[in-house]
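Researcher: Here's the sequence for the chain we discussed earlier.
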Amino acid sequence: MKTIFFVVNKNWEVEPVLNALTSAEFRAKGLPYPNELDSPRRDGDHRAAPRATYYFGDAQGIQLRAIIWCLQDVMDPTKNASSSEEKYRVLPTLYRDYAPVDLVVAAGTAASVEATASLNGSVLLGGRFLLHDARSFDSTSTSNFQLPGAFDTVLPGGAAPALFGLLSAKLAAAGTAQHLLPVANVPGPVALPVPAIPQVLLDEQSIALGTLNVLDYTKYDQADAATLAAWAATGTAPAVSVETTHGLIRLSAPAGVPVLFASGIANRVGFYGPEATKPHRYTAAFNLGTVLGDMLVALAASTSQW
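Model: Thanks. This is the structure I predict for it:
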């Protein structure tokens, strides 16, 4: 039996993801209802337990187990839910009762590195990571994650090229991009060039950039710019998304377990304030769930190929 972990960052992200995965109208073709479902939860319910679990198999037994976690559920509720330090502390506990794990998918909403045209509502997948310590931009931050060798260098996720080839072919065949919801345009002086037509973009070489140790959302645009500069200094391409958690999930995965990321795009980098509205964030997370559903169907049908 193979085991996949989907680790979703925040509780407000995991609930739209699960809405897409469980809706009879919207969920992926061939995707069953979860065997175990513990969502939505009441406000203040911080139980450290998976939100959903799927079992795929036949008369010969279970071939695949998929477990969906919300990272925020596991964190100390007295800590800031954006604390990089606290996330890194608790991430290893997710795997304690589930070894061995065969694949980890780091999932959440993000900004797109492409700032001149909108990818809002799109879902970007890739296999490399870069983290930057941006604590200097947030003088009130109580997060001080530090790990030698973790910052300002590209970290491979370890997923085989064949896995990306499989997912690319399966998502194209399923017409996943055609099922994504469009985002609303943003009026005013920073209006999007055109209403975004969501896409699914997948490249094993794509990099997820991580802005760490920033808790004040109003500092994200400045801090993300510093993360972009740290990436540019490496001379490595292509970076596609910027957020706070994908790279921490990569660092915390069990040794040797491949990790890929799935970013639901809510805004362009540098436009967090005007574009990362609640409708945009919900749509980005829902579309992320749509893609994860088709990924799960593909992986369940092809366990011998990855």
